[in-house]
């Protein structure tokens, strides 16, 4: 376990994220997104799974050729040909990493792989030592670690560490674990695997029960120092841990003393770039980057925000690259919000006029879902005609 509090951000948008139907990327798109991820400050970019197709091999190779600061990682199964192909794809990277591994839960061992636990232990050693012939930086994954019995998981991870893994990834592949359970798993490994203090423990959480971010943060608190995540949380099924959520949790809870290399003011534009390139809309209420993340629409909240933003905002929108928070005028808005917006339009109304404008405003608001500036101009013009 690394003792310092720097948390390494491993982005797998281009690999686990790209596995989502309809999110496939061309070589050119992968390179462009990889450059943007590097600019964002991601430590490791998982660029793809080179054995999966000739197109992905070429895409990973091109990413490896242009990225200078981030590590470029290629995925492989615990199969010699996969590992050799991954190594070839990243041979020109400045910081190459191979990510290799095998399933470890009883479900995977007996039902998917139809093998034995002893064979899994051999394979864990084999895949890491094989990858070590090509690169120094080898990450081992224990697929479905979330549902793997801790004592067997520790034996598997021990094999990977003995074979020279630099990072051990403990995926909650099916998004099953509770935060306490996942955190205890990390702690168990720290207490039971010899030499684990010399390697980085990584989290890789899926969001099937909506717990991927909570699980990742709990794992960090128990000693993990790398988080695998994707922009907007995209990924298989319900997705992966969302990069922007983990990064902002660590930033906002700075008393925990964790740091990342992410330039948070680029998060919003990165989110939009991924959404547009991968045809994957961002839900409006998505934490940090959703369209409503900094929009206030109810009267009570609007009044509070107008008095002092901190009343209802824990993040300054500029911190994540959003221009400013917005006050959305709806039938739930109050006089304070109406007056505030009129003021922004350069319109000052005395108290009785404001009352009349508010009545008219509510009549309009009940008809349309959002009252726009043009509606306000019309309301004010109508008042002036009457006067
Ligand atoms: O979810 C998972 O277990 C994975 C591994 C291949 C790392 O994506
Ligand atoms: Zn995954």
UniProtKB/TrEMBL annotation:
Any one Gene Ontology BP term: L-leucine biosynthetic process
Pathway assignment: Amino-acid biosynthesis; L-leucine biosynthesis; L-leucine from 3-methyl-2-oxobutanoate: step 1/4
Alphabetical list of InterPro entries matching this protein: 2-IPM_HCS-like, AIPM/Hcit_synth_CS, Aldolase_TIM, LeuA/HCS_post-cat, PYR_CT
Enzyme class, spelled out: transferase
Domain annotation Pyruvate carboxyltransferase: ranges: 7-268
Entry keyword annotation includes Ligase: no
Keywords (A to Z) from UniProt: Acyltransferase, Amino-acid biosynthesis, Branched-chain amino acid biosynthesis, Leucine biosynthesis, Manganese, Transferase
EC number: 2.3.3.13
Keyword Transmembrane helix assigned: no
Matching Pfam families: HCS_D2, HMGL-like
Recorded GO MF terms: 2-isopropylmalate synthase activity
Family: Belongs to the alpha-IPM synthase/homocitrate synthase family. LeuA type 1 subfamily.
This protein's name: 2-isopropylmalate synthase
Annotated organism of origin: Fulvivirga sedimenti
């Amino acid at each position: 376990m690394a003792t310092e509090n720097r948390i390494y951000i491993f982005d797998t948008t281009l690999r686990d994220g790209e596995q989502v139907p309809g999110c496939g990327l061309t070589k050119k798109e992968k390179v462009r997104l990889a450059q943007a991820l590097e600019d964002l400050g991601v430590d490791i970019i998982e660029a793809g799974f080179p054995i999966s197709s000739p197109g992905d091999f070429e895409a990973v190779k091109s990413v490896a050729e242009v990225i200078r600061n981030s590590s470029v990682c290629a995925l492989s199964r615990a199969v010699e040909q996969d590992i050799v192909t991954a190594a070839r794809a990243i041979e020109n990277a400045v910081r190459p990493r191979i990510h290799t591994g095998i399933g470890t839960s009883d479900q995977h061992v007996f039902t998917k792989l139809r093998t034995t636990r002893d064979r899994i232990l051999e394979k864990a050693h084999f895949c890491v030592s094989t990858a070590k012939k090509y690169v120094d930086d080898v990450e081992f994954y224990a697929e479905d670690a979330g549902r793997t019995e801790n004592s067997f998981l520790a034996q598997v991870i021990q094999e990977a560490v003995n074979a020279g893994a630099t990072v051990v990834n403990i995926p909650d592949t099916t998004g099953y674990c509770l935060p306490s359970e996942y955190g205890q798993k990390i702690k168990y490994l720290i207490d039971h695997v010899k030499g684990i203090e010399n390697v980085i423990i990584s989290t890789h959480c899926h969001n099937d029960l909506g717990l991927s971010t909570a699980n990742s943060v709990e794992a960090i608190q128990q000693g993990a120092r790398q988080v695998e995540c994707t922009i907007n949380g995209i990924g298989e099924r319900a997705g992966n841990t969302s990069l922007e959520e983990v990064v902002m949790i660590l930033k906002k809870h700075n008393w925990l003393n964790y740091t990342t290399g992410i330039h948070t003011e680029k998060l919003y534009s990165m989110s939009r770039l991924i959404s547009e390139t991968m045809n994957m809309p961002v839900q409006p209420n998505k934490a940090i980057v959703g369209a409503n993340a900094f929009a206030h629409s109810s009267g009570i909240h609007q009044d509070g925000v107008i008095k002092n933003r901190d009343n209802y905002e824990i993040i300054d929108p500029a911190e994540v690259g959003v221009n400013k928070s917005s006050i959305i005028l709806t039938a739930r808005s109050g006089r304070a919000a109406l007056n505030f917006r009129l003021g922004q339009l350069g319109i000052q109304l005395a108290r009785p006029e404001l009352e009349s404008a508010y009545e008219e405003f509510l009549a309009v608001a009940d008809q349309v879902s959002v009252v726009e500036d043009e509606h306000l101009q019309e309301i004010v013009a109508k008042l002036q005609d009457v006067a």
